[in-house]
Records
---
Amino acid sequence: MRAAEDVVDSTQTGRRELVLAVRELGKYFPIREGALQKIAGHIKAVDGVSFDIAPGQTLGLVGESGCGKTTLGRCVAGLTDPTAGGVYFGLDSAARDRLDSLLAVTAPTAEQQSELEDLTDRHRVDRMKGDSYRRYRRNCQVVFQESFASLNPRQLVKDIVGRPLRVHREASGQQLTARVVELLDQVGLGRQHLYRYPHQFSGGQRQRISIARALALDPELVILDEPTSALDVSVQAQILNLLHDLQRERQLAYLFITHDLSVVRHMADRIVVMYVGQVAEAGPTEALFERPEHPYTQALLASSPDVDEETLNLQPLEGAIPDPARPPQGCRFHTRCPVATPACGWEVDDVVRWLEDVEGTFDTLRGVTRRSAFDAALTFADADSAQGLAAALRSGAIPGSMQTALEELKVDGNDVQIRFTEVDEVQLTTRGPDHVAACLLDGGVARPG
Amino acid sequence: MTMLGDNPAATPKLAPAPVASVIDLQVHFRSKAGVVHAVDGVSFDIADGETLGLVGETGCGKSVTARSFLRLVPMPPGIQAGGSILFRPHRGCEACFGNGCDVCHQSGRAPDVCGDCAGSGCDACAGTGHLTVDLLEVAEQDLRNIRGNRIAMIFQDPGKALNPAMSIRDQLAEVFYAHRSAELLAAAGLDGGGDGPVGTLMRRKAGLRSSRLEDVLLTLPSLRARRNRLRVAADNRIAEALAETQIPNPRKVMDRYPHELSGGMRQRVMIAQALACDPDLLIADEPTTALDVTVQARILELIRELQQRHRTSVLYISHDLSLVRRVCDRVAVMYAGRIVEVAPAAEIFNEPSHPYTRGLLAAIPAASHERGRLVAIAGTVPELIDPPPACRFAGRCPFEAEACQLHDPDPEAIGVGHEVACFIHHPPPDSTAARPSFDRQVR
């Protein structure tokens, strides 16, 4: 352990004021189709996410399944390379500010370009080489959700926990055993557990072994990917207490990925709420729970049960998470938002999605000719269906704001021409100290001006 | 249907009785290390129209208890070591045709009458006058008539519980063919299936008993029309069942396969399947654990609404106390194969009386907790191999005393409908040993 600290200290920066900076991170997975496996599109699992983590800080990352939080965690851990943007490690705050100003320049001079290249080479995780990459590797560790799947069933605890020490040539022989015992001791296990296999432990104990392994090299950042979701509440309480004590002792920074709001409220200093690959809202834990600004955050809070509350007062969200291969225009949440406005990005896909849930009509839809996401012609098998759709869109069958956003609606034989108001993607705006949200509204009500 | 629904229409007015009573249930498993006492002396009642929550940690025996209702525990390695599960089936009330009247206590459903005593009360029905079936003793054929018909189950992971190779239509059709074939034949205008070989053929088809050859026969032009009418009748029932769980466009969803649906939709299909035959008892085994919070909220809302509309009794199994508080009327807390506390839902949260219940509630992170100061229960769940006659919670209990090591406490009443198995509240049989107390903390 001590040796590990020496290495970090020798890099003149010591414990830095900033552990990690994520800038405009994107991870796109190609969708391949046909015999030639041509790329037909991309699933944008993570799309333009930025945040910082400071030492001793816990950043909570919450969202529904499929919102890209685990993919983001894997990018930060260097387990997959991002498609766009980057994860910067080992910057101090001056370098971070310099990087931000360089990234903001649209037409950089040759000098700025080379400075940016230099910063990128030294600090961006997917471009690092040699010593700086090794330093990143040892300082960024992961605890996975499934302790069963992430511990090698054929290795002894001593080998599992001692593996990072061996790989980084930290210790061997007697010394290694002593270090492993010390680590096990810190997570509440003991010498008697050294020569056992993972299957001989309970779920909570296995998660402790995972934590011991992650701590072996005294990292600065630990990525916790749903560390307690497979555990019972009483064991979860033990693990959460342990994680907190370790953080205080060692000034660890945590990226805490979870879907459990009560856990994240308990653990995190800052919270990032993700929805379909993007940040919906980010802010200090208290502010986010007291004054959620984004309707999605409000809905998440409303639908999570709290043991202190007696009455059942759930406000369930309508609809399903949209397909990340075709993310909604404008605000990505507008398809399910209870307070959506006409400017929130209503588009042709919303009509198609709506048709799918209406009995009969969708069966006669033959094709959609898109001129843009907002402008298209829907072709039906017969003129009656086309007329029927137009009538439905003019009536109160669709949300009022969607109707207002509908600029043009024309029936042309079997075709229905539809055009919505074009809108840009909703940007994150400041709502309070360190608190941002991507919503056109102000705390769920129309913003003045 | 030999045991159910054979009674004449004259329904005597019976006093309400629990729809199911579990009496001293013991389910053990044989393992290399010894006999595991997974469920060891569990007793509780489920009243008609009530939602009972069964809460506990992994491995406490709650799922085994639930599966015992339908004899779904594999034997061997399971051993039915003792006890019984009494089930009192109901049917539509004949006095009001299901609209609710005095005879059926406004439930629209009347209990079946005991065949031995015609409602006057005898040993077979434990004096209730209701037809009483011991689910652990009943013949396999009769049990098949109860499964999915009078007692239905929603499983934890809809992705695993639905057959991936069958369309939603085929999976739901099975329920109707198995339990409602006569109604389907009537709806298809084939009342009773008619006489002669064609009638037999149709009855076999509607009862899922047709062979491959008979299926081929049914494609003959002269028979095809009848088969199609039967299919349409089944489709109507399926669409109805799906629509009830608020699935949009059910006729479209029917043709889909489970992998094409989202987790929430799959759970809706499971619920539709479970409620298809309007069961008396619905067993929900962690129905929302595999779902997101936003979806979970909608599924809970749906189960609650359907339960109120059908007046079905529900056994709701969960490890999440905050959920149970919102869904259940009464809650039973299980620990290591025993029930440690039973109480009305509000009471268990306001006045938890067993040290384990207190520990469980304190371990849930709440806004008021300081970080790092969650009250965890020390230690781990004990091995259930040949347990000694001591309180199962001894060793982890902060209030433990001498008596806890010598005797295993049984649940005893400490208030109206509130039972606790702990010597803090009632004296041990051997009164010389020191009793535990909430005032004196060991650790």
---
Amino acid sequence: MALPHVLECEKPLHELERKIQALESLTSNDADQSALDAARAEYAEALAHLYANLSPWDIVRVARHPKRPQTRDYIRLICKDFCELHGDRRFGDDPALITGFARIGSMRVMIVGHHKGADTNDKIACHFGCAHPEGYRKALAKMRLAEKFGLPIVTLVDTPGAFPGLGAEQRGQAEAIAVNMLEMSRMKTPIVSIVIGEGGSGGALGIAVADRVAMLEYAYYSVISPEGCAAILWKEANSETNSAAAKALKLTAKDNLELGIVDDVITEPVGGAHRDPAAMGRTLEQWITDRLRELNRFKPANLPARRYERFRKLGSYLEVEPTPEPSEDAAAPSPAPPAPETDATTPRAAQGNGAAARKPRTRSSEPAPAGN
Amino acid sequence: MATSKEQVQTTQAAGRTWMDVKSGGSNAIPEGLWLRCPQCGQMIYRKQMEANLHVCPECEHHFRISASERVRQLTDPESFEPMFTELRCADPLSFVDRKPYAARLVDEQRRTGEHEAIKAGRAFIKGRAAMLCCMDLTFMMGSMGSVVGETITRSIEAAIDQNLPLIIVSCSGGARMQESGLSLMQMAKTSAALARLDDAGGLFISVLTDPTTGGVTASFAMLGDVILAEPKALIGFAGPRVIKQTIRQDLPEGFQRSEFLQDAGLVDRVVHRRDMRSEVSRVIDYAGK
């Protein structure tokens, strides 16, 4: 029961665990048994309470938990058969991105997923889940294969970000990710994506332009890591600023659901996926089969248009009346308080009517009172 | 639109550049008649440099320029009609770091006199009609949030509807952190829109300028049918500092510069600023648009 890796937030639990272990080791008489039951009940309650109240920064750490199930674990748990396909036929085979045919229930699918690595050597080979351009190109090649044979695509996202390195830049990391997004948006086959752990920026999105996108309950999905954000905006990354950045970035599953970035949040077992991978696998399988069944009702040729609409509406902005611009003087280099007086107030106005402004999908044609 | 003419005058009158607004730091250019070129170290006469399209007359160093200056340099006089100027940032996350995003935006708007980090519109380039987007590095490092993403997407859609060639001049620090996930989604949105332009047989010329990094490079900037880059522009996915920290070794000379990308096969042509207008129109002609 004891985990070798103890999260900061789980320290109180760890003590309970040790107590339970101690009781277990001496058991046999009834008095001990009832004490053990009580300790176990206390533990279960504390665990549930803890995980119901995790801070965004704690969630990031759960998402990175070394025992958290990864793509290969889910493949083992969910797929009846897995026929791995290697290589991008151009440069090499990136172990940080796994692709292959698989059977889930009665369905044949193409699996594409980041892999961080199981042990130290594996982790180093996988660059801790940071894929190279050849990984993204392999993913695209195999997704095209799926499209050709009418197989739906299931992608599992779990990466801190695409690899930042010399070779990666030289071989076109940015181009590989960009092309994947472009091509995924027009693939004539169903695509579902699940962020199972870390959804790190472009490296995640490079395999996540899908018809349905979900996040596991304690996964995160963000434009930048909390540490990176803290280093830039707070000028230093320490536990305090990391925590503040994690909160500000609205990177949890719940936040992303509210922003319309993901369609579903998949509940994890009490205490996180790493405490019961089998149960997590079952829930995940259920979600995948449900969504694919739903998407199978559409003609493959019609899917790209729907997928486009899904992403097209993402973003939050206001539309003001095109004002006859008195901004000539504003454009002059002198920092005179410019015409944007109106615009300056607009975002505030938006904040004021909170609800309207926070609904991300609305293209609110805000009357912008100050503007008129 | 009644505003268009005024806007054109504005852009011409502005003449404001990156150097005028960036204060402090090693790259800062002192105000005044003379300035020191950061590349060759020569003292150069500001007016001469400006008349030379903001290129150092001694060493051909391309100074960073604002979107208005870029529009002025690329388009035929008086031909630029701004579009989508009604879009405003909404601070969807109520983001606060050491300073609230809303306040940061107001400051940037006040300082630059611009609403956002992009200018888009229809224009003529050597007599050829085109949709043009110019990112503005002077506004929050040209970062892409919802407004920039939406402006680019609408421009792509307009290019499809009106059968115009699309030109996007990129310069950006990447996706805007203050809109987190929504900024990230602009990458998918713009790329998906470019898939439609591609399906429609439209032409997209991507022009990369110093610096083009992060989420902008990893979306529309690298998706051009033809990709042109200004000399020695920094172009990359990850920033040089991050790469250096990750691989723990010094980066080679010229790494992530336009010429490096051309050698790596990622950029079609490195084009001097003075030739950009004619090269863009040349490509438009070859594509038969």
---
Amino acid sequence: MLVNQFLLLGAVLFAIGVYGVVARKNAVLVLMSIELILSSVNLNLLAFAMRSGTADGHTFALYVIAVAAAEVGVGLGLVLLVYRNRRTISVDELSEMHG
Amino acid sequence: MVAQQVGFWILAVAMVVGALRVVTTRNVVHAALWLVVVLSGAAAQYVLLAAEFVALTQVLVYIGAIMVLFLFGTMLTRARIGREQDLDNSYRLLGVPVALVVLAAMAIALWRGFGDERLPETARPVPTAVVSDQIFGPYLVPFWALSFVLLAAVVGAIVLARKD
């Protein structure tokens, strides 16, 4: 197996996630796109771990998974709060900082 | 080796299709379920990369916990479960060139950097004991930092979501 096939799969998933973050309006869907990006990073870390034959990449991948769990918890808490105050979770309508 | 290649490509196609559906579908619950396809495919790819413990953690944490959170978030912020028309914003077409530029830049860099370098054929699965020795040995300080991040996230999520 080539190193590049895993890295390019990660790159494709990363690009799709970037498109989702740019194009989506629903805040929950933006969070899902961020999950896609984090998942592609993990794929890269594990491909490099196999290439180098060490377990450092595995450690970092586990840390990324833990950070992703924390991020989703806080992110959905924020989305719930925004929904409760504004009755919408469209990120386009949260424009009070727009000059 | 051939079996691994076949498995890789089946999983890769499923993951890319699932990821495209996550960012294009008009139904939030369907997006969450397509995300399960992508994350399960990622777990299977981790097994191909000889990372069994990470694959197991991926299944437990992502598919077990994070997807439930997403479905709860969908349920609590939306009375309606079904098709919707206004999930994409007006910058949607801008997203395509942005994503393509990002992909092209990474693809060129990866191709120049690694070419057709192969993964070691004789790689053994990394034992979980080695991973735990790493976490509780050289990477102990990041582990502590991560514990604080998780504690702060739990407390913060409760504070944010409280009614009063």
---
Amino acid sequence: MIGFARPARTAAFRLLAALAGLGATGAGLPPGLWGQAGPIKYEAFSLPNGLRVIYAIDHAAPIVTVDLWYATGARNERPGHSGFAHLFEHLMFQGSAHVKKSEHFQLIERAGGTLNGSTHDDYTNYYETVPSNRLNLALWLEADRMRSLAVTQQNLDNQRETVKEEKRLRVDNQPYAATFGDGTTWPFDSAGCFAYAHTAIGSIPDLDAARLADVQAFFETYYAPNNATLVVVGDVKPVLLRQFVNAYFADIPSHAAPPPVHCKWTLAPGTARREVEDAHATLPAVMRFYRLAPHDHADTPALQLLSVILGQGESSRLNVTVVRRERAALQAGLFGLDERRGPGVLVAYGIANQGVPVQRLDSLIATQLDSVRRAGVTADELTRAKNTYRADFVHTRETTFGRAEALEHYTLFHARTADINTDLERYLAVTAADVQRVAARYLDPANAVIVIVRPKATPARAGDTR
Amino acid sequence: MKAVPQRRGRSMVPLAALTLAWAQPSGLPAQAFPSTPPKPARLSPVHFPPFQESTLPSGLALVVIEHHAQPVLSVSLAWRAGAAADPVGKEGLAGLVAELLSKGTETRGADQIAQAIEGVGGSLSASAGDDFLTVTADALSDQAELVFTLLGDVTLHATFPDSELELARTRALSTLALELSEPGPLAQRRFATELYGRHPYGRSPTRESYHAITRDDVLQFARQRLRPAGALLVVAGDVTEEQVRELAARVFGAWHGTPPGAAPPPPPAVRVTTDIVLVHRPGSAQANIALGNTTIGPTDPLYYPARVAAQALGGGADSRLFLILREQKGWTYGAYAALRRYRGVGYWQASAEVRPEVADSALRELLHQVDRVRTEAIPASELAAVKGYLIGSFPLTIETPSQIAGQVGTAKLLGLGDDYLHRYRERLNAVTAREAQAAAARLFRHPGLTIVVVGDATKLYERLAAIAPVRLVDIDGQRLTPAEPPLSRSIRPSSGRAPIARKCCSKARRSGLRWRASNPRGIPWCTRSATAAVARSSSKPLSCSPRQTPPRAGSTRS
């Protein structure tokens, strides 16, 4: 859901994970006190209009990241308006009172910066990484569109077409992508939880239905300083930063708090099975979608370690057994879409090797999931998972942007931003019994939507007939 | 309505001196919001981070980049043994060798290797690009000893077990099937083939070539080519040069040998006419367009002006292709252009993914913009913007030790010269508009472009045939011939107007023009051999009178 980006040309499932707004290892990896990794030092303050500002100083390189999260995303969409939050994100680059259409990225790129925005289920982010002498430019641009978005009918129509092409590129024209996107919504029903029972990319008819008045209403409701957090990381002088923030953001009025989102869901309501034909796929695939508790639930650390043990890395159980020993899958894994204030989804998947019956693949994957529910994990596996977690986190904060996203994540999804420097203790405390307990709870077959993807029986290629 | 939920920061109360903005009487803005973008402050100079180079007695080159910001370590070992070294008919060999390096040594099985490195949260993997085969290991820096031990083991003692070769082959075949189902990889594969033909950079693995590879091939490739002389070891992260030298000497000190000469591949043949290769992907929701041509070797000084021209054309969101095809027209999610460097002759490519209905318009616009950058000098303000991005964003590309290692490694492996990284920005800055245009005129060849389009030919063939001659192939590259003879052609993209015959026949087609019924699958395309007579007659102007025969059972219409 990125405002614009070079099209990914990576493996199918990396694309699937990106569709959900997350990397395959899960976003928001917790920071650590493990190893030599120290805490992230930051300062925070708020403006009277409710804008929260967090900054972390690092003079290692003369660059700075400005990362602005609005606490709105696909979850705030209403029936008939699917895909609107993402379309709106595109419109944020279409001009404001003092910035013409396209001028936002022109000004940033000419200054030697990079930028983008992305729409997730629970938030939408806008960010720039620039040479540190252009911090003022990045902040000014964000402030101008927060105070005065100016979208014309022509620009709405233009970006509507662009978003449709994005949907065709990422979903409609790729194998597995449509099923994956839809599959993540099937654990929830529209009546009880529309927030997570529809995809962020939305439908073409809903995109076509978007009106200019909807744009203004969405802006008024959700794009207010009191619904946003500004994070600045890098080569920053605090005095200057505060001057810029005051000058650009302080007089933007706050708005009434957005209406709350309700989501009724049930853990393990009974197994659901679906079979899907995929016109683009050449290999069958299995996807199992399991409901998860919201990110701030106490089970989250054990669940994240469980997903490493079962489904991430060469030595994960699914790879060692299903891919290597049984030679049944080209790839198999497990990851969570859990960066939500509502229920998430744990996805187990495999793409079958040529000639492997898809039911056999599904049963091999199920056997591995069941074995953890029944017999738990070993101490070595738990150690590997914790070490992997620590290393992933250190890597994510090698860049100013990575640190900025981590600060935003903790601010939105945890009780306090300060959890960024203590959360690790929860991961260290996870025991093998915890992992088995959460496996038994969430990987219950009654909690699964099991999806079999079969290549659609298309006419064979003409070239084969000669 | 505008009730303000006041939220104060927990850890800090703003100092009064800095909060003048909200010390003003309510209702009045503290200061007017600036109506123009703020001016830049003074920019701190950026120097490329220091690194140390040395060569071991075996001829293995060593680069150490000390970077202590985070406790991380990245090590990569590269040989001039990429896919370009695959023997003819054994395409995919270098890739399988890379895959198998970590799948068993004299003392460790594949699972033991994976558990050892992942047990400490690290990773070890290898891959073969076109020019180089690279093994990379990452871990936290307290695991430097383990990283070097494992890297040394897989490099010196890999055994390439039979069972692992068979597993790798199975997965490679499935990966190939997966890639052929994805339009992007399919377009890139076809583009390389069209651009380079039988040249080493043009050959791709096939089902047949994967089946042809034996364990002897694997062993011979590894033993001959994965030798230390001429290889490059780059170590970056929270380590000291002394520590790295000691580890490298211990692990690689007894390793000797020289690979056979690996001169860059020779220049490929140059195409002089432009045609379109249309890869028929039934039901494709978009047309994936890729166009370009071969260019120059990696050290050619034309690189700098060509880089400026490519950036102006399609380097980012502030470039012509993006601003026109996306922001003006709404035809695509993104349109870009880029140069690609090889050890031998590289290429440039422009690409866009568009809905089928606008594929011809988008291709015409792409060609028009290629012509513009070839024939018009880039205006001064645009040139300044291009340089602002290329030069100003350089520090963003050397933020992490892995990124620095990538920059240094590329410069060394491609032989870009010792001063390349230090003078990169100044050389770009010196490029004039006239030089950029001259480079574009020389390197972006039109005519002479290779154009590949992946999409549903029933929706695209006629649209594209109006721009340039179309060769139709299936996803395996087998030639197809449209049931209708190719229609009128115009190689001038800027003419923009379809000949009358084409329009007329399009109309006929929509109204129920007969498809060849001999095609058993309902795809309105059949193989060349089946329609050789039709194809031969296609040079004659096509009669435009529609044959009003209704479609036969089993046939489809676009």
